[in-house]
């Protein structure tokens, strides 16, 4: 692929815990989000804007280069984060498992501040019932 290109590929990604159980307690959520952020920062061709969510799902806002295979990136993020959280437990119990599948939506750069704010305030949006269905969807219903 040519290294001479211009791109604006902004993505909103969401995935749930296994059976949408509330596995992301404050401690697990904080550690998981930190792990995901570091993993994304270390990924070539990826710029992370925001990570958020609730006790049963994660939202991520990214800009990626056209060289990034999105499905592969998401699979690696899910697998590595669950492995890391589960390995760091003294009892070696599985504290974090992800549901199969994910949702990914592209959006224009002008919407970047809005998407970041939406992700940052996930708990408030869900408590108030003011979620945006397009950004919460994991399957094509």
Automatic annotation (TrEMBL):
Q: Which GO terms describe its molecular function?
A: DNA binding; transposase activity
Span of domain Transposase IS200-like: 6-122
Which superkingdom, per the lineage?
Bacteria
Question: Which SUPFAM superfamilies does this UniProt record tie to the protein?
Answer: Transposase IS200-like
Give the GO biological process terms. Answer: DNA transposition
A Pfam entry, by short name: Y1_Tnp
Specify the protein name: Transposase IS200 like protein
């Amino acid at each position: 692929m040519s290294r001479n290109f211009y791109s604006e590929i902004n993505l909103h990604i969401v995935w749930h815990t296994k059976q949408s159980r509330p596995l992301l307690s404050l401690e697990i959520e904080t550690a998981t989000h930190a792990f995901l952020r570091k993993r994304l920062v270390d990924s070539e061709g990826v710029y992370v804007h925001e990570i958020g969510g609730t006790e049963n799902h994660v939202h991520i806002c990214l800009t990626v280069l056209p060289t990034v295979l999105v499905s592969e990136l998401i699979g690696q993020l899910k697998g590595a984060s669950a492995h890391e959280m589960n390995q760091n437990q003294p009892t070696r119990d599985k504290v974090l498992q992800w549901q199969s599948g994910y949702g990914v939506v592209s959006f224009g750069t002008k919407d970047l501040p809005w998407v970041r704010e939406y992700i940052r305030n996930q708990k408030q949006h869900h408590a108030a019932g003011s979620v945006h269905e397009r950004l919460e969807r994991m399957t094509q219903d």
